Each structure stands twice: as structure tokens, then as C-alpha cells.
Fold:
Amino acid sequence: MGKITNKYWVVEGTHKDPNDQNTLDHNTEKQYGPYENEAMANTQAMSLIQKNVDDFYHRAWVITKH
Structure:
């Protein structure tokens, strides 16, 4: 059996409540990845957040998938 590694993904989009990841409007969802480490994913997420800083309802999140 091989070692299971976490893959990090960045999910961005518009949210009904920008502080709640579960309120993502899936019609606006975009995913980026996989990234091999969390630092790379965080860098991408921060870049997307800064790019969309004027949109209060836009957020980017780092998630893990197996």
C-alpha cells in the first residue's frame, strides 16, 4: 500500500456570508490545484483574495482532499 498524502486545493467564489465557507454560490466556484503543500495553496489563496479585495462577498479557501 502506498502512502496517502493530502492534496491541497484552493476554492474561490462568491458567498452569501463571506465568513462561512458553506455559503459558497457553486455557480461562481473555481478550483485550483492540487498543490503538494499547504504553503503553496495559501499563497494562491492570498493572491486570489488580494485580486478581488473590492468584492466583499468573494473568498478563497484552502481545502484538503485525499
